[in-house]
Amino acid sequence: MCGIAGIVANFEVSGSLYWALYALQHRGQESGGISTYDNGTVHKYKGYGLVSEVFTSDILQSLSGKTGLGHVRYPTTGGSKPENIQPFNFLFRGHSLSIVHNGNLVNTNDLRYEYEGRGHIFSTTSDTEVIAAILANELIHGHTVGEAISFCMRSIRGSYAVIFMLDGVLYAFRDPLGIKPLCLGEFEDGGHIVASESVALDAVGAKLLRDVAPGESIRLKADKVYPRQIMTAKSPAHCVFEYIYFARADSVIDGISVYDVRQKTGFLLAKEAPAGADIVSPVPDSGTAAATGYAAASGIPFREALIKNRYTGRTFIMPTQAKREMAVRMKLNPVRGHITGKSVVLVDDSIVRGTTSRRIIALVREFGAKEVHLRVASPPIIAPCYLGTDFPTREELISNHKSVAEVREAIEATSLAHISLEGLVEAIGVPCSHLCTGCLTGKYPLAIDGEEEESHGIEMIDPYKNPEL
Amino acid sequence: MCGIAGIVANFEVSGSLYWALYALQHRGQESGGISTYDNGTVHKYKGYGLVSEVFTSDILQSLSGKTGLGHVRYPTTGGSKPENIQPFNFLFRGHSLSIVHNGNLVNTNDLRYEYEGRGHIFSTTSDTEVIAAILANELIHGHTVGEAISFCMRSIRGSYAVIFMLDGVLYAFRDPLGIKPLCLGEFEDGGHIVASESVALDAVGAKLLRDVAPGESIRLKADKVYPRQIMTAKSPAHCVFEYIYFARADSVIDGISVYDVRQKTGFLLAKEAPAGADIVSPVPDSGTAAATGYAAASGIPFREALIKNRYTGRTFIMPTQAKREMAVRMKLNPVRGHITGKSVVLVDDSIVRGTTSRRIIALVREFGAKEVHLRVASPPIIAPCYLGTDFPTREELISNHKSVAEVREAIEATSLAHISLEGLVEAIGVPCSHLCTGCLTGKYPLAIDGEEEESHGIEMIDPYKNPEL
Amino acid sequence: MCGIAGIVANFEVSGSLYWALYALQHRGQESGGISTYDNGTVHKYKGYGLVSEVFTSDILQSLSGKTGLGHVRYPTTGGSKPENIQPFNFLFRGHSLSIVHNGNLVNTNDLRYEYEGRGHIFSTTSDTEVIAAILANELIHGHTVGEAISFCMRSIRGSYAVIFMLDGVLYAFRDPLGIKPLCLGEFEDGGHIVASESVALDAVGAKLLRDVAPGESIRLKADKVYPRQIMTAKSPAHCVFEYIYFARADSVIDGISVYDVRQKTGFLLAKEAPAGADIVSPVPDSGTAAATGYAAASGIPFREALIKNRYTGRTFIMPTQAKREMAVRMKLNPVRGHITGKSVVLVDDSIVRGTTSRRIIALVREFGAKEVHLRVASPPIIAPCYLGTDFPTREELISNHKSVAEVREAIEATSLAHISLEGLVEAIGVPCSHLCTGCLTGKYPLAIDGEEEESHGIEMIDPYKNPEL
Amino acid sequence: MCGIAGIVANFEVSGSLYWALYALQHRGQESGGISTYDNGTVHKYKGYGLVSEVFTSDILQSLSGKTGLGHVRYPTTGGSKPENIQPFNFLFRGHSLSIVHNGNLVNTNDLRYEYEGRGHIFSTTSDTEVIAAILANELIHGHTVGEAISFCMRSIRGSYAVIFMLDGVLYAFRDPLGIKPLCLGEFEDGGHIVASESVALDAVGAKLLRDVAPGESIRLKADKVYPRQIMTAKSPAHCVFEYIYFARADSVIDGISVYDVRQKTGFLLAKEAPAGADIVSPVPDSGTAAATGYAAASGIPFREALIKNRYTGRTFIMPTQAKREMAVRMKLNPVRGHITGKSVVLVDDSIVRGTTSRRIIALVREFGAKEVHLRVASPPIIAPCYLGTDFPTREELISNHKSVAEVREAIEATSLAHISLEGLVEAIGVPCSHLCTGCLTGKYPLAIDGEEEESHGIEMIDPYKNPEL
C-alpha cells in the first residue's frame, strides 16, 4: 500500500504535491518523495518519515517546476532500504524518467531475469524499477511513449497504478482490473492532478473529474488530458480492502463513498448479527463509521468505550518493568464509566492475526465489562494478498485455520460475528464479480503461482484501432 | 494547564511516571520532566517535546529510585523558556527539594517581592519557584514540613495542585477550592500515586482511591497515606472547563465522569436548541461526546462531516503559494458525501476567538453544505481566566463584546446556540456554587485584583486541633 | 577552565560575542551561552556543544541589544548538568542580573551555608550562583553596585574573573592575585570588550588596551571605562598553566606572548636536557612551539613524527573487536618514514597521569623508533589545583609519588626530562613570586584547607579613599 | 578525490573498514559507506558526513561479515546527491555486486551511451555506475570475472582505482598509468587489505606489502592474493598532486614518503627562491612540512605566524554585521607577536584561484607584518585536471592567465615564488616521465578531448599469455 500523486499546472506544483501527499499519508508513513521538472532539470527530494517531517518550506521551494509527482511509501516488496524510497529517477540518452507506483506485481522475478539478460542491472529490489526498466528499454529502442506503455502493461502482471514523468511530460496508467485506485482531477486555475484517492484532490482544491479507468493510460497537460484505453477486462476487480480499511473514510473511490460503505456495513452487520448490549463502541479509528451504522440499525446507544490517544509521538519505547503498562494502553484509553458492569458491542474493521483483538477485549474486560461482543465489518481473512496488501502468511492469519467459534474462544469475546461476503458486497453496491476478494475467498482475479484464478478475461486492445495518446 | 504525577512504591518508579505523564499528555505538550530519588541522590531529566520524545529507555533507566514525580507543561505564566520546565530542583543545607505545580497563583508578584527582600533571588518567572521559596524558607528556619505546607498554603492565593519531594519523601497538596484536579491511587503490589487525572492511574494499573480533598495535604508512603486537612471552604469551586474541554474524556474528576458530562450536555443542548438538519457531526475530537448526545436526543443521524487527520506530524509548514491549501484542511478532512446538499449540525465544545469556528463553517460550506447549524457545549466565554486557563484578553474573547446573534453573523453559521449555564451545571450534576464559572459569569471564587469576587469562605483550620501529618 | 566575554558597543553585539566565544572555544567545549540586554529585556540562549553548534544565525539575530556577555564552559565544580550552563540569569525586584565566571572558589560551601540561612535556595551546584547570590543580596539591601562588588570580593576566596550585566550595564572584576586572565579591548567604531584572552579581541577586530588588573573592578560603557581598584596584593599569582597549556598560543596574557613563552621553554629545555637524536618532534598540537624551540637550540632537525588527525568528528565510538585499533591512533598519525630506525625527541607540554605519554611512546616504538626521548615543557605536576584546573587527585598524578626516573620507566621512554621550575620562570620572564605554582610546588598563594599557603598579602583598599566606579 | 578500502580476513571486518576509512577521511568528507558480505547477504550502510558521524557502534555490528569494502567521498563528477554515495550495490541474476571507485573517467559519456543502447538505464550520474554496468554486462553474458575486468579496463579511459566485491569475493584493479594510488597490506592474524593510502593500513595494524601495480588486477583471499597484470605502459603517470596536497603526510605512495617529498620541496624552494626574512611560517596545515624544509635550508627561524583553529565545528554561520569578523579568521589565528614589525616568509602548498592567498596575506599584514613573502611548494597550476582533481576551469585558475609577477600583484605579496617543475620532480625522486603533470604543463598522459597528449604507450597484455587470476 502506497500513495501516489502527479500534477501538471500553470503554477509551481511542489506545494500542491506536498498537500496531496499529506492527504494520502494514511497510505504510507515510512517515507516520502517528490520530483519536479523545471526547464530541463529534474529536482528531487526524498527521505524517511511523515511528509511533514521530510519536507521543509525551503526544500519545497527548491523543487521548482510546473510538473511533478510524489509518493508516500508503506513497504511491501523490497524491505526498508533508502534506495527503495520513491520516486525513482533515471537518466538515459539525455532523457530523464521519474516514476512512482502503487501496487504489487506478481511476475517480478521473471521480468528481472529477462531484463538482466538484456543488460539492465538493478539497484533496488523494488518492482517499480522493473516497470522503469521496461519503459526505458522500449524508449531507447526507438518506440513511442504510447508503445512503451502498451508493451509495459502487456509485460507486467499484478496490481499497479503508475505515474511517470518523461522529460517533464506527465503520464499515468492503471492495471486492467483497476485493483488499486487512481483518480483524475482538475484545477480551476489551470492544471490537472492524478492521485490515489479523491482526498488528495480535496486537499489541493481540485475538482474530481473521474477515476482513471482500469486498463487506461493518460497523458496530462495543464489544459487537457489525452486518454487511451490500452487493455480491457470483462469486469474490474477493485480491491475490497480499500473500502474496508485502506482508504480514508472521506474518499470516493471508483464512484463510491468509502464512509457510506463502512456505515452501511455496520447497518447490515446489526441485522445479520444482532447483540443484546448496553452500548455500541467502535475500535478507533477505523471502526467508527461501521459502529455508527450498527448503533443506528440496532437502536443500541453509540458510546465510545475506547478513546484513541491523541499524543502518541514517534518513539515507541518500552521499559522493562512493564507488566502493568501494556502497549495497547498507550494507544487506546478505556472510558471506565461506559464499561464497568456493561455489556459492550465493539465494532472493528477486520481481524488479521487476532492478537490486537484479544488485547483490546482483555483491556475492556479489565475495566469491568460484563460482556464483550465483537462485530467485524469484514468477512474472515483466510488467504494472503499478492496484490499490494501486507497481510501475513496463511499460518499467521487466524481465520485461515480457525472457525469463527474457535477465533471467538481465542480472543475471549463473549460473541463474535463477521459481516457476510454478501453483506459486504451489498454495502459496496457493485456486483461481487467487480471486486477482488482474494483474501476473503482464496480466489484471485489473475494468475498467481499456486493459487486459484477466477479469470476476468483481460485483453489488449488492437493497437491499430487505438491511436496513440 | 499542566499535568502532574508523583509515585512512591516498592518498585522502580520512572517507568510508571513515564506512562502516567504519557496519559496526561493532553494537559501539556510543550515539555516534560521527571525527578526521582535514590539513596540520597536526585536523578532528573527534562526537555522540550512530547513525553515520548523527551525520554528514552536509557534515560528512564538512569532515573533510578522508588520515589519520584513528573510534569507535562502547557505554558501559562512565565513564557516558553528552558529554565521554566518542571520539575524544579533545589538544594539547601544538604536537603533536596523537587517540586511540580498545576495551576496559577494570583498573588505571585507580592510574594516575589517579599521573598526577594528575604534574600531569595529568582532564576525563573514561574510561580512554582515562589511556592518552592516559601517552603524552603520555612524549612531552613527550622519549621516542620507540615508547618511549611500550612504556611505556604496560607501565603499563596490562586489555583494549585502541588506535588513535592523533600529528601525522597513525597507530599502533595491542593488549593482550598479544589479548582485544579488531583487524585490519589494505589498499586496492587505496593505503592501510591497522586496525579492530575484518573487516566494516569488507569495507565499504570493503579486503583483510584479518591480525590485529594480541597485544602488537603498528604504525605505518601508506599504502604500508607497520611492525610491532613489544612484549610476549609464553604464550598469547592471546581473548574468547569476541566469538564468542558481540558480533561481527557475517560477521566473521572471529583467523582464525575467527564465523558458523561459531555454527552449529557449534548443531550440537553438538543432540547434547549433543536435544529432541523440531516446529520449531526462533531467538530473532532473534543465535540464527539456532546455530538453523540445531541444525535441521540434529537433523533438526527450521527455522521462525521469532518474527520481528524491522523498524521499531522510535528512541523507546521506553509508554502507561500497556498491560497488553495488552507491550514484548517491540514487537520480536518471533510467527508464530501455527508455534506454536499445537506443541512448539518456541528457540535463543538466552545468558542473562544471565533476564528476557528468561522474557518470550519466556511470549509463545510465549501464542500456543499446547505445549512450549517453550530451548537456549542458551553455557555459563551465572556471573561478571562486567572486560575490556570490560557484564555486571551477580554478584547479577544468574541462573546465578551458580541451577542450570540452577532457571533452567528461573524462566523457565518446558519444558526448558533450555546448550552445554558443551568444546562451545563445540570450535566455536571453538582450545585453551581461548587464550580468556578469565572470565565462564563465574570464572578470569581476568590479575590482577584479588579474583578468581582463571590466569596467561598476559605479558612485555615486551627493547627492545634489538626495534628501534623 | 572556562572562557568569558562581555561587550558594550554602539552596534548590536551578539555577532561579536559569538566570534569572541568562538576564539575562546579552546577554554571549554562542553557548552556555550550568550545573554544580551535590549531596552529592558534580557535575551538569552545557551546549549550543549561548540559555539558553532549552539548558535545559528537566527538565534544570534534574536539576541538583540548593544550590551551582552557570554561563556564557554569546561566543567570543573558542579558536574555536567543543563542548569549549570552559563550565563546565569536572575531577576529580583524588577532588576535583571546576568553573570559569567571563570575560576574556582575555595570557600563555596561556607558561603552556600551562609546564604541559605539568609533565605536563598540554590538551583545549581555552581560557585557562580554563590557570587550572584552575594551581589543580589547586597543590591536588594540597598547597597550600591560598587559596594556590592567590594563586599563580594571580600567574601569570596579563590580564582575569579567575573563579568556581569545589571539592568544592561556591564561590569567586570578579577581576583586580587590575577590568577585567571581577563583583558580589556576597544572597538574602533565605539565600544569596549572584556574577555579571558586577547585572541577574543583579535577575533572581533578590537584593540587590546590592557589587562584588567588583579583586584580591579571596572564598569564598561561604549565610550569609556570606569576603573576602581578594590583589593591589592604584594604580588600577583598568575596561573603558570595558562602559559604552559591552557591559553591559545597566539594570546598575550598579562603582557606576555604565550607562544614565545612556550618556544623559549623548548629552547631552555634543550640546554638543560640535551638528547642525541635524529629528529625533534612535537606531540601535537600543544607541544609544537616548545619543539621548535628545542630544535633551534639543539640543532636537531624539526620533523613531525606524529601528525594530528584533522577529521576526528564528534562521536567517539569503539567497536569491540578493537585490539588492533587503539584510541590514540584515532587522533595521532605516526609518520613511519620519520620514525623507523630513528632516535626521536618528543616534546610535550606536561605529564598528568602518564597514561597518554605511555601510549604515545608505545605507538612511536611500534612504528620502529630506535629511541624515544621525552622532553616536557613543564616541571612535574605534584599537587592538585583548587583554583580552576581540572587536575586529578594526588594519587592519580604520576609525578606526585614517582621520581622522574620511575616515571621514565613507567612510560617506557629512553630518557625523560622536565624543564626546571627556574627555566620555566625564566621563559615567562616575571619573578617566580608573581606566579601561582601550586601544582608544581604544593605551595598555594592563598589559604586552602589542608594545604600550605605562601601568603601574597591580599588586602582591601580603604573604601573611603577609593571612590565608587 | 575519494578514499577507498577493501578487506577480507579471518575476522569480522566492519570495525577495521571503519578505521581504514577514518584514516582516509582527508580524501573526502562529504559522505561515507560500507558494504559487507555475510553468508549470502550484502549488508550496507551509507550517509552524509564524516565517517565518525555516519557510523555508530550498532551500525558497525549490523554490518557483519569477513569481507567488505568502503568509501569516503569528495564530489567530482556527479554532484552532491544521495544516490551518488558509494559503495554502489547491484543485483543481477542472483549475484550481488558492490563497488567503490577513486578516480575519474574521461570517456564516461561514450560508455553511458553505449550501455544505454545495450539496455542499462542509469540511476546516477557517477562514472562508477558505468564501470559496474560494464562488469555486470560481461558477467551476465557468461564471461569469467577475469575476462570482465580485462574488458572493463580496455573499455574505460582515465584514472581509476577500483575495489569490488562479487558474491563476497574481493577484487581490485588500478589504471595502467597508476594515476590514483592503491596499496596492498596484510594482517598478522590472517587477512588482506587494499586501500588508497598506506595510512589506512597503519590505522588497522596491517603491514604494507606493496602498491597494486599500474594495470594490475588482484583477487584477495584472507590467506593469499592472486595477482594478474592486465595492461602495461611504457611508464606510469602518478598524480603529482597526491604528493603536493592530497595524500596524508604520513603516507607512503608508490614507495615514496609524502612528508619527505614535501619537506624536500621546501628545502629546494629555499635554494631556488631565497628571501631575506625574520621568520618562516607555514600556511597550516598543508604547508607545514615544506616550511620546515624551507626554514632548515635557509637558516631563517621556523615560527608559526598562523595557528589553525582546532574547534571550527560543523556549521558555518555568518551574521550579517560581519565586516569585522572575516571568514578566514574563523580558521586561522594570527600570532601577533610573530608578525608585528616582522618580515615573514609564508609557505603554502599551492595557489589555485588566488583568493585564499590574498586573504591570508591581508590578514598577516593587518596584524602588522612588514613584508610577506609567499613561497609555493608547487609550480603554477595552469591547466585543469580531468583525472580526479576538482580544479576549477582554466579561467578561474589564476596562474593560467597571469604571470607570477601579476599574481604577486593580485595577491599583494611582497614577493612570490613557486618551486620549479624540475625542483618538484627532484623532490619526488622519480623521472618526470613517470608522473602526471597535466595541471602544471597542460600535457596529459592519455587522450583527452581537446587537450595535448604525451602518450605513455598503454597496451593490453596478450590474454593467452596471461592466465586468469
TrEMBL record, chains A, B, C, D:
Xref: NCBIfam families: purF
Domain Glutamine amidotransferase type-2: 2-223
Coiled-coil ranges (or none): none
Cofactor: how bound: Binds 1 [4Fe-4S] cluster per subunit. Binds 1 Mg(2+) ion per subunit.
GO molecular function per UniProt: amidophosphoribosyltransferase activity
Binding locations of [4Fe-4S] cluster: 239, 385, 436, 439
Protein name (database record): Amidophosphoribosyltransferase
Biological role: Catalyzes the formation of phosphoribosylamine from phosphoribosylpyrophosphate (PRPP) and glutamine.
Reactions accelerated catalytically: 5-phospho-beta-D-ribosylamine + L-glutamate + diphosphate = 5-phospho-alpha-D-ribose 1-diphosphate + L-glutamine + H2O
SUPFAM superfamilies given in the database record: N-terminal nucleophile aminohydrolases (Ntn hydrolases), PRTase-like
Gene from which this protein is expressed: purF
Pathway: Purine metabolism; IMP biosynthesis via de novo pathway; N(1)-(5-phospho-D-ribosyl)glycinamide from 5-phospho-alpha-D-ribose 1-diphosphate: step 1/2
A Pfam family reported for this protein in Swiss-Prot or TrEMBL: Pribosyltran
Catalytic residues, chain numbering: 2 (nucleophile)
Keyword field: 4Fe-4S, Glutamine amidotransferase, Glycosyltransferase, Iron, Iron-sulfur, Magnesium, Metal-binding, Purine biosynthesis, Transferase
Cofactor(s) listed in the protein's UniProt record: [4Fe-4S] cluster; Mg(2+)
Enzyme Commission no: 2.4.2.14
Sequence similarity: In the C-terminal section; belongs to the purine/pyrimidine phosphoribosyltransferase family.
Alphabetized InterPro entries for the sequence: GATase_2_dom, Ntn_hydrolases_N, PRTase-like, PRTase_dom, PurF, PurF_N
Residues the entry annotates as binding Mg(2+): 286, 348-349
